[in-house]
Amino acid sequence: MRVRGTVQGVGFRPHVYRKAVALGLKGWVINTSGGVHIHVEGEAEAVRRFVSELPSDLPPLACIEEMELLPREPVGYETFFIHESLPADDVAVTVPPDVGLCQDCLREYRDPADRRYGYEFINCVNCGPRFSIIRAVPYDRENTSMAVFTMCEECRREYEDPANRRFHAEPNACPRCGPQLRLVDREGNEVTGDPRHYLRAGKILAVKGIGGYHLACDALNWQAVRELRERKRRETKPFALMARDLDTVRKYCHLSPEEERLLTAPERPILLLRSRGNPALSPEVAPGLNSLGIMLPYTAIHFSLFDESLELLVMTSANLSGDPLILTEEEAFQDLRDIADLFLVHNREIVNRVDDSVVTLFQGKEYFIRRARGYVPRGLKVSRSLPPLFAAGGDLKNVFAFSKGQWIVPSQHFGDLENPRNLDAYRRGVEFFRHFLKVEPVAAVADLHPLYFSTAFAEEMGLPVVKVQHHQAHFASCLADNEIDEKVLGVVCDGTGYGEDGTVWGCEFFYGDYCENERVGSLLPYRQPAGDDVQKNLAQMGAMLLLQLGWEERDILSLFPELAGELSIIKAQTRSEKLSIPSSSSGRLFDAAAAIAGICGRATYEGEGPMRLEAAAERAGGQESYPVRVEKDDMYRLSWRFVEGVARDRLAGVDPAIIARRFHLTFARGIEEMLLYLRQEYPARKVVFSGGVFQNRLLVGYLAERLLELGLTPCFHRRVPPNDGGLAVGQIMIAAGRMETCA
Ligand code: ZN
Ligand code: ZN
Ligand code: FE
Q1: DSSP code, position 724
Q2: Which residue, 63, 225, 242, 475, has fewest beta-carbon neighbours within 10 Å?
Q3: Rounded mean pLDDT of 349-363?
Q4: Distance 266 CA to ligand 3 centre (A)
Q5: Are 12 and 36 in contact (CB under 8 A)?
Q6: CATH topology for 2-82?
Q7: Which ligand ends up closest to the CA of 127?
Q8: Which residues pair with residue 407 across a beta bridge?
């Protein structure tokens, strides 16, 4: 039989071995790049039981997706044994993602009598690095960066004993034979002493972990956190935290049992939790926000950084702003020499860089902001069989994907491709995935945007290129995510994307499925400044909207005194066909609202305005909203005139938090209103929601409830992020639809 799914590097073969031996069967089991192959022979009844019982009590990380029976004549084996792995063949295989340290290993790590006591690279078949150390398939030690470490006798014995927890644990190691940690200064000289001593003293450490480096400092040491901000030149973008244990998390955040389960899951994502506002925590960890991004240690290297007095660390990705994660020691010393005081490094190479995943809890499970470590390269099963395709993704928050059969495999996160270092990492990522998935795409799919680097990349692949409009891809990505195969309505609220008419889109309503879909509504277009400065200068966006509403300069200036020297230019810009462009972006509308409400006039990171607006709205109560109207020209248009209410409230001295709340409710009610009109014309029972704006929990929570009351089924993302990290999945679905599956 052939078994596919997450069945390699997760203790599946010993599981097979135990089942077979218990039933007195003979034969073998082997790992191939096409999954696990099993040959059993014996009494017919025993063979039947083997097949039916194989999927029960699987090891915790194993997951069977497919079992195929291939009847054979008995060979006459005398034992049941585990074959060495076969060289790769042409069938796809699921390489396991990296897994957080398990409880058994943690116990051994803390047990002075254990031979791995205090050993930071402890792992077993249920935990440890996987994707981040794999060079090639099949997933065997020689194909990982553990190949250079020769197992000592004891480790080898465990590795070969089917009854042992470390049986074929590919990164198996101990202090005698495995990787070693070193603490060094900026010059690379060995430093004696415990890294914790330096953290307690307020030093900043660069820490090499699983998928990259982190910068770590004591989150309760305000001076250290400020120092890190200054050295990293990172003004207000929030820092992720790592807590010693769940009790510590509870001291700083509200934590429900479901959130607790997510935090301790093998994937160990960064979870966004509501802050308790504990005054001990440095206010510079997440300025202006009420949530904290927090994770638990996921390798023993991390556990070695905590003790009684160190309970909460800043653990932020160690990269220069906008650059990819640092991989090698050379890069670390080069890039971080002015940032880190000390470097905690090791000699196990990181092959595939992979960021920490970021999630929030929604409807009982993770809702992705960033899908990376712990999840990648798990595939997504979709409702139909697909041609082999490569989808390049978008240019921001880039994630690419490949399709194969009924699977789409999205990559980790590559950041902004405008940066040549990211583009380079992306290029290598594409090669790696193509190789390990053994897929020869018949076409490349890319965004319609003529200036996207991802589009240029797709065009250079020498394959036919299929171009898909940005929001159409978002729409399809949410369909695929929910395995929907019927016609539905879709709401895509996003930053900016290139529209079919060459203008900026970003609040779009669709009706249809993969094969046929139509843009049936949008935000009423307004003019937004051309050029990239609009992402940062939110006050300018706010002023431009008010000018379009016919507001007097005097009133605008009383809202934005900082624009005193600029307003006449903005006015000219608004009238110019070149300096401003038509836009239906909801991201820019949120930016404008954040500025007009007096919450954020200038953003220092992407999404700062909307994030702070949401945080403010969460602090306020009330159900009031501004009047909202739907218009109709060639399609339904949600009018954005309600921002006038934001400005009036602000001039009247209303608390910005209350304004923020009213704005959110208004926008949500506007969407509701649009859907009421649309459903009269388009017979849909379900509504999908995609686009970066739906990272906003207030909106998502509100719409989830309201739609049910309207008799519609709201469908949100479940397996990929609503933001551009999910784009490639939708690109594949639309391209596949156009190519064949709809014929
Ligand atoms: Zn373990
Ligand atoms: Zn050893
Ligand atoms: Fe987008």
Answers
A1: G
A2: 63
A3: 96
A4: 29
A5: yes
A6: Alpha-Beta Plaits (3.30.70)
A7: 1
A8: 381, 404
Quote the ligand 3 centre to 605 CA distance (angstroms): 16
Q: How many Å lie between the centroid of ligand 2 and the Cα of residue 192?
A: 24
CATH number for the domain formed by residue range(s) 95-178: 3.90.870.30
* pLDDT > 70 fraction of the chain, expressed in percent and rounded: 98
pLDDT at 84: 65
Helix ranges (H only) for 652-696 are: 656-681
For domain 521-682, the question of CATH label 2.60.40.1730 is answered with: no
Whether residue 90 has pLDDT greater than 80: no
613 C-alpha to center of ligand 3: Å? 20
CA dihedral for 662, 663, 666, 671, sign (positive or negative)? negative
pLDDT at 105 (0 to 100): 97
- Expressed in angstroms and rounded, the spacing between residue 127 Cα and the centre of ligand 1 is 4
Provide mean pLDDT across the span 500-518. Answer: 96
pLDDT at position 89, please? 39
For the domain made up of 379-472+727-738, give the CATH fold.
Nucleotidyltransferase; domain 5 (3.30.420)
- What is the rounded distance in angstroms from the CA atom of residue 588 to the CA atom of residue 689? 18
Q: What is the number of the ligand closest to the CA of 725?
A: 3
Q: Which ligand is nearest to the CA of 169?
A: 1
Q: How far apart are CA 94 and CA 377, in angstroms?
A: 7
pTM of the model: 0.91
Q: Compute the average pLDDT of residues 665-689.
A: 97
Average pLDDT over residues 30-42: 87
Give the DSSP H or E segment for 213.
strand 213-218
d(CA 441, CA 460) in angstroms, rounded, equals 14
The alpha carbon of 438 and the centre of ligand 3 are apart by a number of angstroms equal to 29
CATH 3.10.560.10 fits 181-346, yes or no: no
Q: Tell me what the pLDDT averaged over the chain comes to.
A: 94
Say which amino acid occupies 341. D
Ligand 1 centroid to 409 CA: how many Å?
Answer: 26
Q: Output the CA 210–ligand 1 centroid distance in Å.
A: 15
Distance of CA 698 from the midpoint of ligand 2 (Å): 51
Q: Indicate the length of the chain as a whole number.
A: 743
Torsion angles phi and psi, residue 452, rounded to 5: -70, 135
Q: How far is the CA of 69 from the centre of ligand 3 (A)?
A: 43
Helices H, strands E: what count in the chain? 22, 29
CB 489 within 8 A of CB 678: yes
Which of 145-149, 165-169, 613-617 is the least confident region? Answer: 165-169
Yes or no: say if 22 and 15 are a contact pair by the CB < 8 Å rule: no
Using the predicted structure, report yes or no on whether residue 88 has a pLDDT greater than 50.
Answer: no
Tens digit of each residue's pLDDT (9 = 90 or more) over 213-246: 999 999 999 999 999 999 999 999 999 999 999 9
Residue 718 sits at φ, ψ, to 5 deg, of: -130, -30
Helix (H) or strand (E) holding 611: helix 608-619
Which residues touch 687 (CB under 8 Å, ≥6 apart)? 488, 489, 490, 491, 675, 707, 712, 713, 714, 715
How many A from CA of 58 to the centre of ligand 2?
A: 27
CA–centroid distance, residue 718 to ligand 3 (Å): 17
* Cα 321 from Cα 415, distance rounded (Å): 10
Strands 213-218 and 2-6: unpaired
Domain ranges of the chain: 2-82, 95-178, 181-346, 379-472+727-738, 521-682
Local structure of 314: helix, strand or coil: strand
